[in-house]
Specification:
The protein has helices spanning 37-47, 65-74, 92-103, 123-129, 143-177, 183-201, 244-256, 290-296; strands spanning 28-33, 57-62, 80-84, 110-115, 134-137, 207-213, 222-227, 260-261, 265-270, 276-283. With 309 residues, it is an alpha/beta fold. The protein folds into two domains: 6-158, Rossmann fold, CATH 3.40.50.2300; 178-308, 2-Layer Sandwich (Beta-Lactamase), CATH 3.30.450. The strands form two sheets. The protein has a five-stranded parallel β-sheet, sandwiched between helices. Strand 8 (260-261) and strand 9 form a beta hairpin. The longest helix has 35 residues, at 143-177.
Length: 309
């Protein structure tokens, strides 16, 4: 990085503050693909301890196209890829864009092409011919400009990710609607709720949906859908869940007939007709913000007092 503006002068922050699970926070995962180790260090150093849209950044590193391909086959939740053009070949970065989009099928991640040698990939040609989202020369990316570029890319990724998750969740609900009263239909509908909620909150699906007949013991509510670690609980009573906090949250929601929120979880209550209610538990790991509550109101009425909890 050759820019030496005041905004490039940063205080050093210790490495133990930047891990992917610091204090349980959700992170934006940024992959740097470049054969120059100094570029990796400079990029990460410039953005150290700088959250974007309320979340810290977690950097992953690849030093060749092969490294990047191997990593992306394992890591799907990558918000932004900072990709060098010239690595093992003059057009290695451009070739990698095609592999990422066409062969690996990764369409949500935003790709920012970076080059120290603009002549190898003219900006207009690269934007026109390749599915990239921005093009920068390394010399122009001061700390402020890097922050602006990453913020725009992450905002775009977040919106696309939420839309796609909503589409998947709504698809499951729509497929179930024709047979909602049938047992299989109820499971499909409930699974769609988990997918939709997790997508809106930017989380991996990890939760439980249970059905409860009003007037019966909530601990005997039937688990009709589950995701993540809870899948083995489907078709079992609520009391079968081996994590007490999950059962407590769901029982409270059904007994109070009101959604419940903690720093680690969200439990939404869905009043049903003829005394058939449902409740959905989603692991959130961190407290929700006002925007999260507004999104969740799409699914279930939420008391305004919950926003200040």
């Amino acid at each position: 990085m050759v820019d030496h503006d005041d905004d490039d002068i940063l205080a050093l922050v210790s490495d133990d503050e930047t891990g992917p699970n610091r204090a349980g926070h959700r992170c934006w995962r940024v992959l740097i693909v470049d054969d120059d180790q100094d570029v990796h260090q400079a990029t990460e150093f410039a953005m150290t301890n700088t959250p974007i849209l309320g979340r810290p950044l977690f950097f992953m590193h690849a030093y060749s196209s092969d490294d990047a391909i191997a990593l992306l086959k394992q890591e799907k939740d990558v918000s932004v890829i900072l990709l060098d053009v010239v690595m093992e070949r003059e057009d290695a970065g451009l070739r990698l864009v095609k592999i990422i989009r066409d062969e690996l099928g990764i369409t949500e991640s935003r790709i920012i092409l970076r080059t120290g040698q603009p002549g190898y990939a003219p900006e207009m040609d690269a934007i026109r011919d390749y599915d990239i989202n921005d093009y920068k020369t390394k010399s122009e990316l001061s700390r402020n400009r890097l922050y602006t570029t990453l913020t725009a890319a992450i905002r775009s990724y977040d919106q696309i990710h939420a839309i796609n998750a909503s589409r998947r969740g709504l698809g499951m609900i729509i497929r179930a609607s024709a047979e909602l009263m049938a047992h299989h239909g109820m499971r499909e509908f409930a699974a769609g709720i988990i997918t939709q909620l997790a997508g809106l909150l930017g989380l991996s699906p990890e939760g439980v949906v249970c059905a409860h007949d009003r007037g019966h013991d909530p601990s005997q509510a039937r688990i009709v859908a589950a995701a993540g670690r809870y899948t083995k609980c489907i078709e079992h009573p609520l009391s079968s869940i081996d994590r007490p906090a999950v059962g407590v949250a769901l029982r409270k929601a059904m007994e109070a007939r009101q959604s419940q929120f903690t720093d680690e979880s969200t439990t939404l209550f869905f009043p049903g007709e003829s005394g058939h209610d449902m409740a959905a538990y989603i692991e959130t790991a961190v407290p929700l913000d006002e925007l999260d509550f507004q999104l969740l109101e799409v699914f279930a009425p939420i008391s305004p007092s919950a926003w200040t909890m």
